[in-house]
Amino acid sequence: MLPLNVKNSLHRHLQEVKTLHERDLTEGFGRVYLPYSLERKYPHANREWAWQYVFPSAKRSIHPRTGAERRHHTKSDHTTLVHIHCRAPNLTGPLANLTVPIFCGLI
Lowest CB count within 10 Å: 41, 61, 63, 64, which one? Predict the structure, then answer.
């Protein structure tokens, strides 16, 4: 459960990320790296919305090993999550003392 102000901000952010992903797909990109076994088992999963980064990089880059052009996660994942998390304690009532540790890799 997330505080309403965090939930709304995250929802807006995810809408923007989905629009970015859809644009990447129309331009022939929109794929993320998946571990080999997942890539083999689900060959089209790397293009699906569910596998995309929550905090993608603003620009695509070339992977040095594979040469594939993709959008990686942004280096500021942790900063973004901490910023969202730090606004939650400004609430009053039962949620005022809520502390939820978040690891960026889980979102």
Answer: 64
